Amino acid sequence: MVRPIHQTAISSEIVTPVLKVGYREGQRFDAGAVLIEFDCRRPQHDLAALAAVVKEATVQVESQQHLGRGGAGNRTDLGVAEARHAKAVAEHASMRQRLEGCRLIAPYAGVVTELAVAAHETPQPNRPLLTIASATRLEIELIVPSRLLASVKPGQDLTFAVDETGRVYRSRVARSGGAVDPSSQTVKLFAEFVDAPDEIMPGMSGTARFLTTGG
Fold first, then answer.
1. Which overall architecture, per CATH, does domain 138-210 show?
2. Which of 67, 109, 151, 168 could share a disulfide with 72, CB 3.0–4.6 Å?
């Protein structure tokens, strides 16, 4: 079976409407593409308000420091002002970090395999919004008799006939699985396409034929 080397379910902590869905199921994208964009106008206003609170708290700290240098202040008032300033800075930083999630960016080039959200919908936090998979970095998972481990090694050439396309593709053994199934005496082998064409998709199945040195 063909499977992606990378597959990721993407969620978000932001509770705000979806502004735009960049890609639908089956559509491919490049690394760095915007997969989903949220309507973050309200959080942006909240960030501006928190910035004003930080500015006010900074003024209060500076005022208490000035009074202290003149002998008119006290440590308690300064401590309270510094605590309020630290709290304001932390809240501003937290909101700014949340705003970084207003756009979900593709970590690698791939394809959308599942989409669970639509534009203008307000999703629940941490619920998977979409699932993506690498489209060009694919591998073949094979189930073979464990006795083949003695003769089949990483780097060995093979062909893989894909049922869905009716074509045969050059491949190469990458590694073996970590354990033998004792009940069936089989083991997993993983192979990579030498050249993976765009027509190959995760989930396709087929038949492998291992090539000897003589072909």
1. Beta Barrel (2.40)
2. 67
